[in-house]
Amino acid sequence: MKIISVSVMAIQLPLRRPFIVAYETYETMPMIIVKLQTDTGYIGYGEATPDQHVTGETWESTYAVLTKVLGPLVLDEHPFNIERIHARMDDALYGCPAAKAGIDIACYDLMGKISGQPVYHLLGGLYHDSLTIPYVLSIKEPEAMAQEAADAVANGYGCIKIKVGLHRDTDIERVHAVRKAVGKSVQIRVDANQGWQNRTDTLYVLQRIEDCNIDWIEQPVVADDLVALADVRRQTTLPIMVDEGLHDVRDMREVIALGAADRINIKLMKCGGLYPALKLVSQAEMARMECQVGSMVESSVATAAGAHLSIAKKNITSNEMVGPLMFTQDIGALNYEGSRLHLSDKPGLGIEVDERMLAEMVCISETVDRK
């Protein structure tokens, strides 16, 4: 069995409302869908959702990498040869993890379909029966965020994630307003997305929200300053999660050595897919650090991949598999019931890709084969 064609389709999914974080405002979400086909007729889907602020990849560059470098490279490979595929991708190209994740996820979808197993069986089996997801608040004025949080709790959510990082004093107001609106029992997590820049601003904010009963604070300094992150961790009682500062196993080794974080946020687009994500989970477990599987606001394809990883691992204790809930249209569907996500036990990712809708959404596409 071998891969005989790689189809690369650039699309943009429409968001229900603008998604606003410290470094960007998104009106739509650009992504690349990867479709691998074998000589025996199996088809696997993957996704690359790049973020130039996090991985250094753009929508356009990712499309070029997949069509010109990685697509031709995996032709004639057996999809189960995942270690060799990753080694070849890494030898051919430094970095570009979102592009590599597109190939990786499609390979796992193929492996599941070929073996007749859901992907989580290939990652360790079923550990969690279903996943509890948070409600994610984009950056708005404090009163608007408080009202949206209260509405989410009224609709059954027990965990609110607050995006902050634009202005430290207003961020303090945001956190306090949300806590007041949702009461004492609802979990709150705060994500600065590097917005506070340095340890001085970070500590200024953290000292003023310590009484808000925060689960953890995520990426409160710039991504490439793990020393500052470690310094912040030593000076606060709030647990610290590293996100943009953690991409691969080398970063993880440094996080552990510096004592820079209490928890890690794994994103398939940052590390290159499911296969390298498994290595990060193992490293974290050895360091007694719990994991979260995050999202770049991905379609049902990459969200399903992250969910399969989340549901298979004991040490993954939180997730942000919320992407499909943020779109008005998607190319597939996942089973959400309020704040719970239930995965299908169908082979592969368990996603039925709507080929008609996908074709309507394609901005540009190319198929790589031996013809």
Automatic annotation (TrEMBL):
Q: Quote the cofactor binding remark.
A: Binds 1 Mg(2+) ion per subunit.
A single BP term in Gene Ontology: peptide metabolic process
Question: What keywords sit in the KW lines?
Answer: Isomerase, Magnesium, Metal-binding
Cofactors that this protein relies on: Mg(2+)
A matching Pfam family: MR_MLE_C
Which EC number(s) does the record attach to this protein?
Answer: 5.1.1.-
Q: Does the record bear Magnesium in its keywords?
A: yes
List GO molecular-function terms, semicolon-separated. magnesium ion binding; racemase and epimerase activity, acting on amino acids and derivatives
Binding site residues for Mg(2+): 191, 218, 243
- What family, per the record? Belongs to the mandelate racemase/muconate lactonizing enzyme family.
In its UniProt entry, what is this protein called? Dipeptide epimerase
